[in-house]
C-alpha cells in the first residue's frame, strides 16, 4: 500500500466515524427504545454496503484502491464492533436479557445476511 | 447574518464534537489498517480483525466505565469519550469486516469456520467488554478518590 493510499484510507475512516456520530445521534433523537437501534442500523447498512463493494471488487468492477478506501476506510470507520459489544453487555447487566441477546446475535445474523446479499449483488447476482 | 450559536445545536451536530470524532476515527482506522497489513490471515480467516475487535471491546468497556465513575458526561469527560471512544475505538473496531469476512467464508462453503469466527468474535468480545467494565471497577476500588480517602 502506498503512503498516499494509506492516508486516504485513514481519512476515509475518520469521515466514516463522523457519519456514525451524526446517524446515531439522529436516530437517538427520533427513536426512544432500550435497544440501541442507531448502532444496529449503522452496522447492518454498513455490512450490506461492504458486501456489495467486496463483490464489485472481486468481479473487477471496482479498482482495488477504491475497495480499500471505501471498504476498509469509510465503512470500517462507519461500522463499529466495540460499541455494539459494550451495549449488549450493558443491556445484560440491566437484566434486559432478550434485548441483549438480540443486540448480540440478532445484529450478527442481520449483518451477515445483508453482507452476503450485497456480495451476491456485487458479483452480478 | 448572525452565526448560529454552536452550543444550541444537538451534541452530535456541534462542530468541535464532529472534529474530535473525525480525528479519533482517522487514528483508529490507521491503527487497524497497520495491524491488518502486518498480520496475515490464518487459513483464510482474518485473525487481525478478530483480535482488533476483542481488544477494542475491552478498552471501550474500560474507558466508558472509568469516565462514568468520574462524573456526568460533560466537559472534558465528554470530549474524551468522543475522541477516544466514538473516534479511536469506534474507528479501530469494525463490524462490516466481521460480517463480510463471514460471508466470504460462507460463500466458500466453510460453514464451521464461518460460525466459529462470527460467534467466537461476538462471544469473546462480550466477555472482553464485561472484563473492561469490571477492570475499571477494580482499579477504582484500589485507588479511592481524595474525598473518599478523607472520609475514612
TrEMBL record, chain A:
Coiled coil spans: none
Transmembrane segments: 6-23, 35-59, 65-86, 98-123
Full protein name: Fluoride-specific ion channel FluC
Similarity field: Belongs to the fluoride channel Fluc/FEX (TC 1.A.43) family.
Keyword list, A-Z: Cell membrane, Ion channel, Ion transport, Membrane, Metal-binding, Sodium, Transmembrane, Transmembrane helix, Transport
Classification via Pfam families: CRCB (PF02537)
Function: Fluoride-specific ion channel. Important for reducing fluoride concentration in the cell, thus reducing its toxicity.
Main localization category: membrane
One Gene Ontology cellular component annotation held by this UniProt entry: plasma membrane
Membrane disposition: Multi-pass membrane protein
Reactions listed under catalytic activity: fluoride(in) = fluoride(out)
Gene source species: Cryobacterium adonitolivorans
Cell location: Cell membrane
GO molecular function: fluoride channel activity; metal ion binding
Residues annotated as binding Na(+): 76, 79
Keyword Coiled coil among record annotations: no
Any GO BP: cellular detoxification of fluoride
InterPro entries: FluC (IPR003691)
Regulation: Na(+) is not transported, but it plays an essential structural role and its presence is essential for fluoride channel function.
Domain of life: Bacteria
UniProtKB/TrEMBL annotation, chain B:
Membrane topology note: Multi-pass membrane protein
Binding-site positions, Na(+): 90, 93
Alphabetical keyword list: Cell membrane, Ion channel, Ion transport, Membrane, Metal-binding, Sodium, Transmembrane, Transmembrane helix, Transport
Cell location: Cell membrane
Regulation: Na(+) is not transported, but it plays an essential structural role and its presence is essential for fluoride channel function.
Entry-linked Pfam families: CRCB (PF02537)
Alphabetized GO MF terms: fluoride channel activity; metal ion binding
Keyword flag Nucleotide-binding: no
Annotated Gene Ontology cellular component terms: plasma membrane
Source organism, top-level taxon: Bacteria
Keyword Transit peptide: no
TM helices/strands, residue ranges: 12-31, 43-68, 80-99, 111-133
InterPro entries linked to this entry: FluC
Reactions catalysed according to its record: fluoride(in) = fluoride(out)
Family: Belongs to the fluoride channel Fluc/FEX (TC 1.A.43) family.
Function: Fluoride-specific ion channel. Important for reducing fluoride concentration in the cell, thus reducing its toxicity.
Protein name: Fluoride-specific ion channel FluC
Amino acid at each position: 500500500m502506498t503512503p498516499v493510499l494509506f492516508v486516504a484510507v485513514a481519512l476515509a475512516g475518520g469521515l466514516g466515524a463522523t457519519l456514525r456520530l451524526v446517524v446515531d445521534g439522529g436516530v437517538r433523537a427520533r427513536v426512544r427504545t432500550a435497544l440501541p437501534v442507531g448502532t444496529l442500523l449503522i452496522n447492518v447498512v454498513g455490512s450490506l454496503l461492504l458486501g456489495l463493494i467486496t463483490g464489485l471488487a472481486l468481479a473487477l468492477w471496482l479498482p482495488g484502491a477504491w475497495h480499500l478506501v471505501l471498504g476498509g476506510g469509510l465503512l470500517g470507520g462507519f461500522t463499529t464492533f466495540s460499541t455494539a459489544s459494550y451495549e449488549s453487555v450493558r443491556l445484560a447487566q440491566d437484566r434486559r436479557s432478550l434485548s441483549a441477546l438480540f443486540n448480540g446475535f440478532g445484529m450478527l445474523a442481520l449483518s451477515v445476511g445483508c453482507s452476503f446479499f450485497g456480495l451476491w449483488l456485487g458479483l452480478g447476482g | 447574518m448572525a452565526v448560529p450559536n454552536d452550543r444550541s445545536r444537538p451534541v452530535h451536530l456541534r462542530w468541535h464534537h464532529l472534529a474530535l470524532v473525525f480525528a479519533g476515527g482517522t487514528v483508529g482506522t490507521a491503527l487497524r489498517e497497520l495491524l491488518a497489513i502486518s498480520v496475515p490471515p490464518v487459513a483464510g480467516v482474518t485473525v487481525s480483525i478478530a483480535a482488533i475487535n476483542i481488544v477494542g471491546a475491552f478498552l471501550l468497556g474500560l474507558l466508558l466505565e472509568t469516565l462514568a465513575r468520574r462524573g456526568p458526561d460533560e466537559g472534558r469527560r465528554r470530549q474524551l469519550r468522543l475522541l477516544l471512544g466514538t473516534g479511536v475505538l469506534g474507528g479501530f473496531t469494525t463490524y462490516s469486516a466481521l460480517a463480510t469476512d463471514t460471508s466470504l467464508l460462507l460463500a466458500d462453503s466453510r460453514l464451521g469456520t464461518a460460525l466459529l469466527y462470527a460467534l467466537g468474535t461476538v462471544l469473546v468480545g462480550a466477555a472482553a467488554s464485561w472484563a473492561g467494565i469490571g477492570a475499571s471497577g477494580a482499579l477504582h476500588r484500589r485507588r479511592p478518590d481524595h474525598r473518599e480517602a478523607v472520609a475514612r
